[in-house]
Structure formats: C-alpha cells, structure tokens
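Subgroup meeting minutes
Present: P.N., E.W., G.H.
Scribe: E.W.

1. P.N. recapped why we're keeping a running log of single-chain structure predictions: easier to compare across weeks, and new members can see raw inputs and outputs side by side.
2. G.H. added today's entry (407 aa).
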Amino acid sequence: MKVFINLLKDSGRYIVRGTKTYHLWMGTLTFVMLVGALCYGIQIADGLHVTGMTDRVSWGLYISNFTFLVGVAAAAVMLVLPTYILNDVDFKQAVLIGEGMAVAALLMCLAFVVVDIGGPARFWHIIPFIGDFNFPKSLLAWDVLVINGYLLINLTIPLYILIMRYQGKTPNPKIYLPGLIISVFWAVAIHMVTAFLLQGLPARPFWNTGLLGPRFLASAFTAGPALIIIALAMIRKFTDFDIPDKTLRKLGLIITVAAQINLIMLLSELFKEFYFPTHHSESAYYLFFGLEGKHALVPWIRTSIFINVIATVGLFFHKVRNNLRLLYIASGLLFIAIWIEKGFGMIIPGFIPGPWGAIVEYQPTGIEIGVTFGIWAMGAFIFTILARMGIAIELRKIKYKDAEVES
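Output recorded in log:
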C-alpha cells in the first residue's frame, strides 16, 4: 500500500508537468468535458426528451457509441495475445498502451450507459443484490458482468506490472500470466454477449442474424488496432518512448486481415438481404436506399462502405501497408468507417421501421452530440494520463523512493 501511494503521488506530480503542447491538449479535453457536462446537466434537468430518441427509436447516439467502444476495448487482446501468450517481443513496448486504451474505452462504455438511462440515479437497478439484476436469465446482466469483469482485469494486471517496474523489479509471470490468459477469452466474451443482446430481440429482424457476433469481432479487431496505431504514432512523435516500426507494421497486418473478413461478412449480409428480399429486409432497404421517402442514414452508410473499401484495398498492398504515413491514413479511415457502420449503421436501422410498420427517423440533437463529445474527451483524458504515467515508469523517469521526479 505504501508503494502504491507513493506511485500515485509521484505520478500525480509528473502528470501535471509537461510541454506547452501537452498542456494545450489536456486543456482542450477539459473544455470539451465541461461542455459535455453542461449538456448532460440540461438532459438531467429536462429529461430525455431533449435528445432525438423517442418511444419508436429508443437507442440512439449513446448506445451506438457504447456498442462501438466495446469493440475498441476488446481489441487490446490483439496486443496481449502475441506478447504474453505467443512471446512476440515486437509487441512488448505497445501492450501497456493497449491496456490503457481498453480501460479508457470501458469507462466510456459505462458513461454512455449512464447517460442513456437518463441519469445515474437509475443505475442502481442493475447493481447485484441491490437492484433487479436477474442473473443468469437476463442477457443484460451477463453484459454488465463481462464488461465490469474485463475492466477489473485491465486495471489490476497492468497496475501490478507498473508497480513492480516502479520499484525496479521484474514482474512475476506466475502472478499476471493466468489473468492475461483469462483476459483473452474475456475480450471475446464482452463483444459476443453484446451481440447476443441484439440478436435476442425477435421484434428486430435486422439484428436476427448468426453473423452478428463474428461481424462484431471482425470490426472490433479492425477499429481497435487502428486506433492503437494512431495512438502509438502520437506517442512516437511527442515522447521518447521507442515504438519499433515492426510493431506498427504488424498491427497494420492485423487490421488488414480483420478488415477483409469484415467486408466479406458485410457482402454476405447484403446478399442475404437483397437477393431474395422479404418484409424483414425493410430495415436494410431503409439503411442503404431509403424507404418511403425517408433516407437520413443513406449518405452515412454509403460513405462508410466507400472509405472502408478504399482503406482495405489500399492496405492489401505491401507498399501501402509498410509506408507508415499511408498506414496512419488508412487506420484513420477504417476507424471512421467502422464507427459509422457499427454505430448508426447497426443500431438505428434496427428500430426502423417499427414492429407495426411505422417509419420514424432519428437525428441526434445538439445535447446528445455535446454529451457524446464530452465522454470521448473524458476517454482521451484518461488514456493520456494512463499512457503518460506508464511511459514515465517504463523510461524510469518515475522511480520508487526518488527524491526528485524528472520532468
């Protein structure tokens, strides 16, 4: 406990110091979080009617981001698996960065759930032994269990490793390796259970497909590593932490394969929906072509597919994938494409048309957008702190019992 307290003190002193660029970044994130808090305060005071959600489309921008971020959190396994299970040294410098991103993504997931249910006072309903948890019958109870369990794993194991390195000691694999093995399976579980939540709603035929779970995993292992590549690029640029080119190129290979699998599954879904369409295909028609003059999502999904194909085809060529600048651009495009496809392109069409055939479109309001940006800024703020602390310990800028913390 004494070591842990000293670690927090030393890290706190180090985190508040930095370059002008660092302070500008953190100040900008703080401002966006304050704007998001203001928007959330308006939502708390006036109720969910200030959002674009209705009784016809009851999941909107918040749950779209929740679904997407579950995949980002699960993507940390793509660094853990080769590093600690397959003993690939090229990933060792990046694995703690991936774990930090998983923690930030999971906290953002929980934040999006809190704002979606209207307010934190309603959160007690899903707390075991206090609310109506309804485990194991409820799939939502399983989702709460796997997400919080994965968060606990991603907090405790990196913390143990950092505490040991903070003291100049070598972490004992017998202590952390079993937890890492569990985290590999747990990462798959958090996304599959989320997919089961959607698949298990019989009144929403758009989600009733056996490919939903595998598609979730393929898109997660595309967007998550793509975001990690962008984060590692920023770390290489603004810190002294050494991220080998091999690490970035191997991550590029991972997202290339995952993106191709994701496109194949998307093509399979399109064939199923449009080769012999039924009335269950109306949601897909609304998404891709519009329905009865309503076509709010058509530009979004077409843009998503276009940039997804461009980035995936580009990464297929070695010269593009091995050029780090082009890899960064392709990673950013894939991240945006998957966010659209898995957010607006997955959640919203499931409600349109409704079970009785009514077509009620959804558009997020300024309040929803403000809250969403605030939560994303919170995630970036948390990740920056975790990454800066981890890098400082790895570079021995923060040491146990040091009288002076280096700048």
